[in-house]
Amino acid sequence: MQLAKIITLANAKVRLAFTAMERSLRATGCLAPLRVIPYDERRFELPADAEWWELPEVIHWLRAEKAHPMMRKYQCLLAAGYQYVDTDVVFLRNPEEVLAPHAGFITSCCHWRDQGHTTTEESRRIFAAKSTTWQKTTFNAGQFACDRALYTFEELKRTALRPEYVETCLRLRWHDQPGLNLLVHHSNVPITNLTLPPYSMESTWAGDYLNGYEPYWRDAQRKPYLMHWAGMPKDAPRAIDRLFLEFLTAAEKAEWAAQAEEWRRAQQAKKTSLRGITRRVKRAWQALVEP
What is the CATH number of the domain that holds 213? Predict the structure, then answer.
């Protein structure tokens, strides 16, 4: 495929992650323009090589449907020749070169081994009706590429609003991943996962490298071309984090550390609150059943 643009989704909250992602992209030599879908109204100043990308008809429709803001990624399905990445990604190789030999819809995640968070009960039934090996084509909605537009806007609306699709594509409260998987599969575009044979690229998820990464990347052809920190806690330093941190200045690293500490405290507060609720429920139950 010929890569025409890089797409991401962002707001001011993820400015630092976006900064590292953008710098890593340019460090690979990739010159493709960067388009940023606004997650919400909290925008920030973009570098000269990036611009906000908003399709008003898509945004207004999703807003009217009260869809999760992450579903704004559905804009990608109307475009051609792009690489989409979440902001918690850094590039290790030039995506223009990596994607050039491939066609169709391309991903490089390892969700084929674990379909968690990629489907709903409704979409699993739809996938299973089409293939007994549907698991190998599920993908992470934080990194994918496609050489063609899969829908027009009207086709996208009509598909997402189908009675058997609407809960997954528009009503899901948590995120966009099952909906995006369902819409891509419905389009019948050929799906290639670069971590499966014959390519067998090493994992692009940082969580697979808790004990280091260099030994896995001795074969340059199998080295991942990007690294994704999806679902990784901010307050647990890992060796692979240096691939992200090296693209931040000293001041930005300090800001990132402060954000990580704030995240840790918030998580601890949630745990403390949950334990308190559990104790109160237990005491209430004991008061109810004890004589």
Answer: 3.90.550.10
